[in-house]
Design a protein that fits this description.
The complex is a heterodimer of chains A (299) and B (137). With 299 residues, chain A is α/β, with parallel strands linked by helices. Helices cover 34% and strands 30% of the residues of chain A. Chain A folds into 2 domains: 201 residues, P-loop containing nucleotide triphosphate hydrolases (Rossmann fold); 85 residues, 2-Layer Sandwich (Alpha-Beta Plaits). The chains are: A alpha/beta (299), B mainly alpha (137). Chains A and B meet through helix 6, helix 8 and strand 14 of A and helix 1, helix 2, helix 3 and helix 5 of B.
Chain lengths: 299, 137
């Protein structure tokens, strides 16, 4: 379990993270979404003990991470900018990782390298950008760490590789109850993968939720009546958004779908339809409700 | 085994529940059958194991499957009847759609005909369009 409480991190006078708090439970896939400069990478570097925070603390299973060798054994981080030893191949890198991670498994390393179709004897600097990412991912997964972090790793992979990586991560969760944190600037990238999503903006979490709850508690309703009606007709319903064009009204509603449906059906509508929202729409409306201009946060 | 539509607006969690219920209805999963493990299913369907776990919890709550220590998760007794019972509420959908059709001036006969066709497994709507085009031409 990762707990961050009220952390702030400054670069000069720029606050990369500003009174940032969150908790990530074990065995889940946690997604960090936000535009460039929102603080995603800074947060990941703080969790992995690369940075120390100016204010607040990060604890993993009750222990601080910074300068804590024992804890760092349990964390592996695939950063945005990858590091490989100069002119080396994956086999050499595996040796490096194995010297630092007690649980490093060569068996897993060979198996994953084969799955990703990577030549472990070829120099990494001859790899393409995507292959380098895959190489770093294979090395990280071979460490058998409890907490695995990917900084925009998914963004650089093609759909086939992404699907493959997802399945490998799912297996890892099943086998070892590992915790995975993925950052991305694209919500769509994380939508079908994560259990929990946090939206970052200007160094803060502005919105955090369980993906399942998000998609089931908010929905769009289209309705029309033969008689005249306006927004007040739906006083009993928790609406985030209301728009009427012609005789058809479109509403974004929060609540229990069956209860709301029963309520509206009782009004005898001419047309009545419930449409599930895409996660992107959910975020736009939720953020709108929080008073954020969505296009300044979402890309 | 069913597949997950990643581009659908329907949440994966709901697609999973519906998918398993469909397997029960069409008899691929029979009462007492042991269901594949979360691990195997997450690989097969490419779905987050936690989402699968939640879907199973809901299916257990609905009495469609049961899990016990040692023998894994299996299809509960009377699962088929339960799913059919849940699905019969879909009849309300027909009422709603029929009402919509009525208000847009479609004759009752045509609605009856449409239902009859569905029950004769004649659900290929595109072909029908073709036919109509031909008969018009």
């Amino acid at each position: 379990m990762i707990v961050a409480s009220h952390i702030s991190k400054y670069f000069g006078s720029f606050a990369a993270l500003d009174d940032f708090s969150c908790s990530i439970s074990d065995g889940c896939i946690y997604g960090l979404v936000g535009s460039n400069g929102a603080g995603k990478s800074t947060f990941l570097r703080l969790i992995s003990g690369v940075y120390s925070s100016e204010k607040g603390e990060i604890h993993i299973d009750g222990e601080p991470v910074f300068d804590n060798m024992g804890m760092k054994q349990r964390i592996v981080f695939v950063p945005d900018e990858l590091y490989f030893l100069p002119r080396c191949n994956m086999q050499r890198m595996a040796k490096l990782y194995a010297s630092m991670y007690e649980n490093f498994s060569y068996e897993k390393f060979y198996r994953l390298a084969t799955t990703f179709d990577l030549d472990i004897k070829k120099k990494i600097n001859t790899f393409s950008k995507g292959m380098k990412r895959q190489a770093a991912t294979v090395l990280a997964l071979s460490c058998n760490a409890d907490y695995i972090m990917f900084d925009e790793t998914f963004d650089g992979l093609d759909p086939v590789m992404r699907n493959l990586l997802k399945r490998i991560l799912y297996a890892d969760i099943c086998e070892r109850n590992s915790t995975i944190i993925i950052s991305s600037h694209s919500l769509r990238e994380l939508e079908d993968t994560c259990d929990q999503l946090a939206m970052l903006h200007s160094g803060r979490i502005i919105f955090e939720s369980d993906v399942m709850n998000l998609k089931t508690s908010l929905f769009k309703i289209q309705v029309a009546f033969s008689k005249d009606y306006d927004k007040d007709t739906f006083k009993a319903i928790d609406m985030l958004h209301y728009q009427k064009s012609g005789s058809v009204a479109t509403m974004i509603v929060r609540g229990n779908r069956d209860e709301v449906a029963a309520l509206i059906k009782a009004m005898n509508p001419l047309l009545f339809e419930i449409i599930p929202l895409s996660l992107e729409e959910v975020f736009i409306y939720e953020m709108d409700a929080l008073g954020y201009e969505c296009n300044e946060v979402l890309l | 085994m069913f597949e997950i539509d990643r581009f659908s607006r329907k949440p994966i969690y709901e697609q999973l529940i519906e998918g398993f219920e469909n397997e029960v209805i069409c008899g691929d999963f029979k009462e007492g059958d042991v269901m594949p493990s979360v691990r195997a299913l997450s690989q097969m369907l490419s779905v987050n194991p936690n989402t699968l776990q939640k879907a199973f919890q809901e299916l257990e709550r609905r009495g469609i499957c049961k899990s016990s220590m040692g023998s894994g998760r299996y299809i509960a007794k009377g699962a088929m009847a339960k799913v059919l019972n849940l699905r019969s509420s879909m009849l309300n959908e027909i009422v709603r759609i029929s009402y919509e059709l009525k208000t847009s001036g479609i004759k009752e006969e045509l609605v009856h005909e449409a239902v009859r066709r569905a029950y004769k497994n004649d659900t290929d709507v595109s072909e029908n369009k073709e036919e109509r085009k031909n008969s018009e031409g």
